[in-house]
Amino acid sequence: MSAPPQMDQATCKAALAEAIAAFEVPENKNRILAILAEVNALPADQQIMQRMMRVLPAVQEIQQNALAKYGFDFPGGRNASYDADSTCQSERPRNDRAS
Length: 99
Prior knowledge:
4 helices
């Protein structure tokens, strides 16, 4: 697996903004809401596992298209948004990092 691409903070912010904006697309938003409704209808002891098994892959798929054009393309299911966020944070001055 290759390392995340090197980019400046402005490009990182643009990539993350596009990934987040992908959730505003009605089709994507409705998809996530439908999965959540199905998961919430399950018994409480099954909900956490089903969120991990159903919601997270859908979220990663929605983000993947937005982030792939910036070089974050991990077909094995690795979460590209995590790598994009890590890249952005590595350029942030120390005193600006969240604690």
